[in-house]
Amino acid sequence: MPVLVASDLDRTLIYSSAALALTMPDARAPRLLCVEVHESRPLSYMTETAAALLTELGDTALFVPTTTRTRKQYQRINLPGPPPTYAICANGGHILVDGVSDPSWQARVTARLAEECAPLDEIRAHLMATADPAWVRKHRVAEDLFAYLVVERELLPEEWVKELAVWAENRGWTVSLQGRKIYAVPKPLTKSAALHELSRRTGADLTLAAGDSLLDADLLLAADKGWRPGHGELADAQWTAPGVSALPERGVLAGERILREFLRQCRAPR
After folding, report:
1. What integer pLDDT is reported at residue 66 of this predicted model?
2. pLDDT over 80 (residue 155)
3. Are the CB atoms for 190 and 211 separated by under 8 Å?
4. Of 140, 6, 152, 4, nearest to 72 (Cα)?
5. How far is CA 174 from CA 37, 71, 83, 167, 258, in A?
6. 43 three-class SS
7. Residue 154: how many CA atoms within 13 Å on its side-chain side?
8. What is the DSSP code (8-state) at residue 158?
């Protein structure tokens, strides 16, 4: 039976230059590998050591990249190691099989959202009406499933985010603040639901997961074992749960530590 490893990507395994947290002296900084280019510019990195560990993990377990990114955003990432057979995109809205969205899963997700949540158009209209252009840089809709704002974080009023969360909660949606992005996501749209589906399909007898944001909490809870880095929403909230390990490492070195933990667990007797 395979081990299924479902890991968040941004600020868990891969890091923008702003999120690297290279606090050591320059001469001791790790060598970095660029794993994402966007509009001809390097965008995301991991250490060369992490790249080697991920390649080893891909040969040892069923590695499933698990991200809130859209399919288009995910597909510009060039991860080291064997190409993943499966990937989870759009926070569980799409399961990719050899790079192609699985239509049966997509139909199930669409039906459930229509039944349980306020429509996306209502959420988007509220964001447009209440968010102040003084601190909003972009309004975005992802895959016709959820919405997010790109904001000037230092100008963002905390009270506005709290009020939005309460408003969304009453409509079957959840709100998450990650870096410069505020996500409004339907509650049933979860990474954990897609993880359960892939665990069923593959017959995995052990599931491992990692993530840094509130949108990863359900994924960590659904796995047999999980890890979170020392940065991100979950760390800021001091979030813990049985079976989830809080790691001290922050920034790109946390990605290395997470991959070592995955490999250690894969090799442990079961």
Report:
1. 98
2. yes
3. no
4. 140
5. 30, 21, 32, 9, 27
6. strand
7. 0
8. H
Give the pLDDT confidence of 55-102 residue by residue, as tens digits: 999 999 999 999 999 999 999 999 999 999 999 999 999 999 999 999
Exposed e or buried b for every residue in 248-261, given b needs 16+ CB within 10 A? eebbbbbbbbbbeb
Q: Provide the 10 A C-beta neighbour count for residue 108.
A: 14
Measured between alpha carbons, how far is 231 from 21 in angstroms, rounded to an integer?
Answer: 10
48-60 vs 252-267: helix axis angle to the nearest 10? 30
CB 260 within 8 A of CB 60: no
CA–chain centroid gap for 165, Å, is 19
User: Strands 94-97 and 100-101, how do they pair?
Assistant: antiparallel
* pLDDT of residue 245 exceeding 80: yes
Residue pair 8/210 in contact by the 8 Å Cβ criterion: yes
**Nearest to 208, CA basis, from 246, 249, 256, 244:** 244
Task: Provide Rg for the chain, Cα atoms.
Answer: 18
What is 163-231 written as a DSSP string?
HHHHHHHTTTEEEEEETTEEEEEETT--HHHHHHHHHHHHT-SEEEEE--SGGGHHHHHHSSEEEE-SS
97-129: pLDDT as tens digits: 999 999 999 999 999 999 999 999 999 999 999
Sheet holding 94-97, edge to edge: 86-89, 94-97, 100-101
